């Protein structure tokens, strides 16, 4: 039996930084989630949310799925909907890059834009309004436990196996917080001493995919006690590390990934013989039109 494309979600490479952290005696590893079929870490929860909703009988192929997204989850859901045969409506802020919008349309999704001022909060509100009007079913990546469950079942075990249980620190940018919640739960079960570090944008920074949520919009499955430390990342630090990744490591990634690597290197400078893993959320070609390169 030949595999289908969904068989290749997950099992992404874990690679060592060769130059950027060479001045430390710690190991900094990057989990290359851009190697997923739709190009980001969000492939994992997107597919899982649809599969689990099907198994529960919450959706059937004649249904339309609606979701608010800042980009990567939308692309991943559009791919998963195409695999499974669902119509897809995605709602996102208008200031998202053209690459992300075009990728969603390429998979056959309908795209609705809200203003930059309305932002993700406005997109989420509109998705729920459309569901209330009977226009489709919202999977709700921000409150759906199938989001972190995907990382508990796949990302966490992969990291444990790929580091042979030697991982000491895990660093992830926080958007929906699904990645950090699921990975934290799995890794802490293996070794409670593993440190889980979350990243949020510093005041005034605008980093695609990560947020400082107002209390009313905080993801429902986020548990603060699963994160040992939260670090604010500046726009300049994230952009600089992102460019350094491409130029000195051959890793072409997005801005939030640059933030994770910046934090990982700073941590490596403070520790002895640590094994630090940073999530590389997606690929840099998703952001070319924004001029950041």
Automatic annotation (TrEMBL):
Sections of the chain in a coiled coil: none
GO molecular function terms noted in the UniProt entry: cysteine synthase activity
Pfam families xref list: PALP
Keyword Ubl conjugation among UniProt keywords: no
Keywords: Amino-acid biosynthesis, Cysteine biosynthesis, Pyridoxal phosphate, Transferase
Domain Tryptophan synthase beta chain-like PALP: 6-282
Homology family: Belongs to the cysteine synthase/cystathionine beta-synthase family.
Protein name: Cysteine synthase
Organism placement in taxonomy: Bacteria, Pseudomonadati, Pseudomonadota, Gammaproteobacteria, Alkalimonas
Gene designation per UniProt: cysM
